[in-house]
Write a structure and sequence with these properties.
The protein is mainly alpha-helical. Strands 1-2 form a two-stranded antiparallel ribbon. Strand 1 and strand 2 form a beta hairpin. Helix 1 packs across helix 4, helix 1 crosses helix 6 and helix 4 crosses helix 5.
Length: about 150
C-alpha cells in the first residue's frame, strides 16, 4: 500500500500553518505545535530541511519564528513533499532504467511511471494558497447546538 510518512504529512501541516499566519509575522514553532497537535521536537526536525530548501525563513529573538520564504501561491505540495520525502517515485526503475535488466521490455514500469507522473501532477497543482482557501472555507462552516 502506498502511504505517505508522518514526516511528509506533518511537514505539509507545518507549512499550511505558516501560510495561514503569513501576514502575522514570524510564527514560533511552539505556536504551530499547539495548533497542529504535533510535538515541537518533531517540528524542529522538519523545519531545517524546509529552511535549507528555501521554503521558509527564520527570525531570531523574542519575536522570532518562521515564515514562508515566498508567497503561498508559489509553493506547491510537490515542493514540500520532495524536500521531506525525497524522490516521489513509486518504483526506482522509473527514474533509473539501468536498475533492472527488464526495464526496456517491462510494461509494468510504464504503468508505475504513469501513476507516479499523475501523483506528481496533482501535488504540483495544489499550492499552499489553495490549501489556505480550502481551510478557511472549512473553518467558516456554521454549527448549531441546542
Amino acid at each position: 500500500m502506498l502511504k505517505l510518512s508522518t514526516k511528509g504529512r506533518y511537514g505539509v501541516r507545518l507549512m499550511l500553518d505558516l501560510a495561514l499566519n503569513f501576514n502575522k509575522g514570524p510564527v514560533p514553532l511552539h505556536d504551530v505545535s499547539k495548533r497542529q497537535g504535533i510535538s515541537e521536537k518533531y517540528l524542529w526536525q522538519l523545519i531545517n530541511p524546509l529552511k535549507n530548501a528555501g521554503l521558509v525563513t527564520s527570525t531570531r529573538g523574542a519575536r522570532g519564528g518562521y515564515c514562508l520564504a515566498k508567497p503561498a501561491r508559489q509553493i506547491n505540495l510537490k515542493d514540500i513533499m520532495e524536500v521531506l520525502e525525497g524522490s516521489m517515485c513509486l518504483v526506482d526503475c522509473t527514474i533509473n532504467a539501468s536498475m533492472c535488466k527488464r526495464s526496456s521490455m517491462c510494461v509494468l514500469r510504464d504503468v508505475w511511471k504513469d501513476v507516479t507522473d499523475k501523483i506528481l501532477k496533482v501535488l504540483e497543482s495544489c499550492s499552499l494558497e489553495q490549501m489556505v482557501d480550502k481551510q478557511q472555507s472549512k473553518s467558516k462552516t456554521i454549527t448549531y447546538s441546542i
